[in-house]
Input
Amino acid sequence: MKFPSKSISPAIYIPLLYFASGVPYVIINTVSVIFYKKLGIDNAQITFWTSFLYLPWVIKMFWGPIVDVYSTKRKWILYTQFAMSVCLGLVAFSLQLPNFFFISLAALTVGAFISATYDIATDGFYLLALTTEQQALLVGIRSLFYRLAVIFGSGVLVVIAGQLEAKLKNIPLSWTLAIGFAAVILAVISVCDRLTLPLPESDTPRQPTQTTKIPFFKIISSYFQQPKILAILAFILLYRFGEAMLLKVASLFLLDPIGKGGLGLTTSDVGLVYGTFGVISLICGGILGGVVIAKYGLEKCLLPMALALNVPNVFYVYMAYTKPTLPLVYSLVSVEQFGYGFGFTAFSVYLMYVSQGEYKTSHFAISTGIMALGMMLPGIMSGYLQNLLGYPLFFTLVCVLAIPGIISLLFIPLPAETNNQTS
Output
């Protein structure tokens, strides 16, 4: 097969690369919660095991150099895309088996490692294949198509499964078809990328002698030698602690029947409420957050944005007690997700601030790994706490657990230029 030349516009292949990055991530970490719930798995089991699926994104920094040293980023992308489509195909098939939970969870675990590896290769390829000007120009496109993938996975795909449930009256088959559809899409993207991805001259394997010069210990130790590192770590782990617990349980709450304390929504309703309008609101919140930080600076925005992220969680307390009508659920979830997107922007900017110095890329990978750990640990315990407390008290606890993250703001170092602006 003849490979493409370097003249192919990145506007063709960058959208495909980042759409293919978002679809597996959202299926593994978000949609899995929904289809396991629909297939009758207990809340505690769902949140415990699916939270461990964050682990590859926690530790991916440790095998990032392997992707950097061996083979080319282009080959890593093509191989992992194909492997990911196979994993999703196996997940779809396994839902027809009596022991589907173990097999599908194993396939999702393998897929999580593949997806994290794909993310490493894709980000590296982005830097190698594009000029500095192209990188700046296409950063918005890259983010847009990743978000569209999230809407597709948590919204469109869930709605499709819900429609199939209503038509076929067969929940396992409905989800087999929906996940199988996603697997086919990734396979098609893999073929398209094989035809369109350029062959950058700089995308070559490093020589063996170069591998011995990678200062792993120096890179990691330099990150943890930053001033006030304990406060920084506490901030990264605690800023979204309550939200991380909410994230795993929100879909379960929407799906659980009213008799069990939930809202009793259909699968399609959840796809629209949380996966479509919710995600759109999250995107809008993130865009506004970036504009506000650019205008007022990070120091002035951190506390208001932390409150914007956490205070709307009280809406879930209200919904758990009152069981509102569907239109009001749409509104409340959309506002909560808007606040999350708005508040998360400050968090993202701060991670960039603490990822400075000689090893910016590696430091940012460490920061995002710790961030993923901060999502995994609360998620593991969330289902057990929900079963123990019930939805109203659980969501009340979520609101209370926002307080340590807000307190951590008092101790973290802030950008010098922001301090100067406000002094």
Q: What stands out?
A: The first helix runs from residue 10 to 38. Residues 8-214 form a domain with the Growth Hormone; Chain: A; fold (CATH 1.20.1250.20). The chain has two domains: 8-214, 216-410.
